[in-house]
Amino acid sequence: MRLEDNEALTAAARHADATLAIHILDPRDLLPRRARSAGGLGVPKLGPPRARFMLEGLAELRRQLQELGQVSVAQEAAAAASARPGAAAVGPAAARAQASSSGGGDLVVRCGRTEQVLKQLLNQVLEAHPELRHVSLHYHMEPLPEPEPEPGAAPGPSGAAAEDREAAVQRMLAAWAAQRGVGCSVHPHWDKTLYHPDDLPYSMYGTGKAAGGQGSQKSGGKEGQQQAKQPQHQPQQQDGRQQYSQAANRDAQRYRTLPSVMTDFRRTTQSACVVRACLPPPAALPPPPGPWRQDAATAATAGAVAAGASVPAVESLWGEIPGSVTALYEAGGPEAVAALARLQELVGLDYSQLYPSKAATAIAGMDAAATATGAPAAAVEDPRSAFPFRAGSGEALHRLRYYVWGSPDYDPEAGTLQAMQEGQQQQQPLASPPSLLYFTNTRAQAVGVDSSTKLSPFCALGCITPRRIYQEVEAVREAAKAAALSSAAGEASAAAGGGGGACLPTPAECDWLAMHLCIRDFWTYTVLKEGMATLDERGIVGQPVSWRRDPDVLARWCSGRTGLPFVDANMRELAATGWMSNRGRQNVASLLAKDLQQDWRWGAELFECLLLDSDVAVNYCNWNYFAGVGNDPRNRRFKTVTQGMQYDEDAVLAATWLPELARLPPRLRHTPWANDLLPAEQEAAAAAAAAASTTRSAPPTAASALAVAAGQVAAGQMGAAAAAFGVVLGRDYPLPIVDPVEQTGTLPAEEKARKAAKARGKVKL
């Protein structure tokens, strides 16, 4: 959902006489990966938060294509006018008026099975162009082309005989072209990874050698490191035009030498492989085929849209973007509606009032009937969300630059074609410190908008590519080097003057972010190597495990009612917003698979449904990893209570998403089962009891508050300290689903103190 660094769009624009950009809302994406009858969770693969994000992205993409189409119209009209003898110069407005029968870009949006919709569109094109001789299909391929069940069959990877969607589309196109005597070609493109599959150092994997060290086959020492900063795979020049590779070989045999350990893959790949250059957005597009060519009135309307006007829904030939999540599922049919109902039952939320953001609904092409009544503010933007962004490449680029440069607030023109083309010049650093400056310390934190980049949802939706992120990170790295050299030379130092140089991230911070992009690649290439095994119960290691399948345990985990605050707060945040921190994901997965011993695929299916950044490869490989059936060499088990204390010290997440615990002090928000009050908490408990008391003549003391609490808590039951604040476990908040002692470890600071004491000979460990 972008114009920049889009190989499919660039190739189509370069070689075609007419282009048609298409997005198909396939109802199979709204069905469960595994039906409940097949042991699955029964929730849609595309859940409401991500569906809303996708609808916003489609609206933004439509606006950008309309604008790009008007550029094409103006260029063609101006060229035609200037070719006439004695013709005067033609301005953009006049050019649009003169180009009544040609040009104009937009986005075709349809609901239906992909191969069937494409066949209908092809028939429309052929009817308008009987002289048609060739059709080319350009698309971005997925790392795991999954079998598609036939209507009425149980969804899921078990349908081995079913044809995957890409194969079905190619077979349909070949049959259609043969029947009508039209030539056809299919051009898959690859944009999923930072490093292209053709550039990986396959011969070095498994040798124990990393480039830069002794025996490196590609680059070594300082010279090799400098070389690695330059794009290794430069576009070849042919007939004066850049030629880029297209399809990636998905044969698992090709990836058999890839390391199974993330660190091994990352070290070898980063040292030996380089990142290809990004593609600029197309300067113009060929006109659409006959049925979609605009008349003068439609061209003028599209011109108004490009100028920022809000207009009614576009001509029905282009198709409307559903204006609400409910409308999308209704268009998907009764099975999609049933899957949505199942999700709402599990998480305890109603998604019927979930609409795209108000900014997106102002863009032409949203379903006017669905958006006319508006939506409650809480249904559009949850103020508690750690991901307060709408979809779109403009928003993605703004977020990227804000994070690495410290940019000001969002410029509404950032998503326009002109802004993106001007954006090829890197933004200068500002005085405000960029969040990347603190990435090493904040990346594992469980709360906060700027604790992490928040770019993964944009990557998953296709609003931005990993290599575009890398390009910006390398730009700030070079700026930091230049600032350091300038300072060393005694010139005007930003650090000395408090200017931009002092606000630039260090190379180490840049390395951390680049490393995380490489880790994302690792999961994608693991799927290419392991294939459908990543979706199997036994995982990629083929480990047989007797998983439990307890519906009550599952319901408590899904709805955030396990009685473990860090887990519950993360699960409720996920259900409400589609976001969860990486630290949260690790902990809730560990609890479900390692402690509750439930089928890990239930968790993977819920994450796939709800996460804004859901990606089959990243999601399922991570669940393999933390369920103990993947490539974690340490088979870690997380202490969720201690993890919450370490990565959300003040229990902000619990205070935000668990209102029943909000009145408790931070320690008790982490451990509401405690029976003791610390000295600092005793006064707070007494004050809380006094505020709640309307009958006593004198305020209670801390001791009397605990006595009252003891009367509310059964003998031997946990939670007396929380009860002193009026929170009773089992009534106001669930009792822990497992023994909290087993979820509690030693905090790093405590462990450090113990080791120091041992070194001094004061304690024995």
From TrEMBL:
Query: According to the UniProt record, where is the region Disordered?
Result: 142-166, 206-250
Q: Where does FAD bind?
A: S452, T453, K454, L455, S456, D613, S614, D615
Q: Where is the composition biased (Low complexity)?
A: 216-248
User: Which PROSITE patterns does the record associate with it?
Assistant: PHR_CRY_ALPHA_BETA
- Report the co-factor binding details: Binds 1 FAD per subunit.
In this UniProt entry, which residues are annotated as the site Electron transfer via tryptophanyl radical? Answer: W547, W600, W623
Tell me which family the UniProt entry assigns to this protein. Belongs to the DNA photolyase class-1 family.
What this protein is called in its record is Photolyase/cryptochrome alpha/beta domain-containing protein
| Phylogenetic lineage | Eukaryota, Viridiplantae, Chlorophyta, core chlorophytes, Chlorophyceae
